[in-house]
Amino acid sequence: MTPDQAKVKCRKFLSFLLEDYAKHIAEPARVKALVQGLIDERINEVDFSNQLQKPCLVGFLKVLVPL
Questions:
Q1: pLDDT band at 55, cuts 50/70/90?
Q2: Residues in CB range of 28: below 8 A, 6 or more apart
Q3: pLDDT tier for residue 60 given thresholds of 50, 70 and 90
Q4: 35 near 49, Cβ under 8 Å?
Q5: Among the listed residues 51, 12, 56, 54, the one whose alpha carbon sits nearest the alpha carbon of residue 31
Q6: Which candidate, 6, 14, 35, 49, has a CA 20 to 30 Å from the CA of 28?
Q7: What angle do CA 31, 57, 61 make, to 5 degrees?
């Protein structure tokens, strides 16, 4: 996977979290803050996944976020 492909996949995934996933939970502001923290490198992939309660995302994020 090229860095450009990784950027597109990561952008689509984070957009999904912000637009669709956040609508179906009680705290959409929390999801937005987590995504921003990931982008700003204030939170790592493992903590991000744990706070979303989706540990299955760790591998996906560890590959895409650094790219």
A1: low
A2: 22
A3: confident
A4: no
A5: 51
A6: 6
A7: 90
Displacement of CA 10 from its chain's centroid (Å): 7
This prediction has a pTM of 0.73
What single-letter amino acid sits at 55? P
Residue type, 35: V
Q: How many CA atoms lie within 13 A of 18 on its CB side?
A: 13
Task: Please answer whether residues 54 and 46 qualify as being in contact, where contact means their C-beta atoms are separated by less than 8 angstroms.
Answer: no
Give me 14's structure tokens.
Answer: 């984070």
- DSSP reduced 3-state for 15: helix
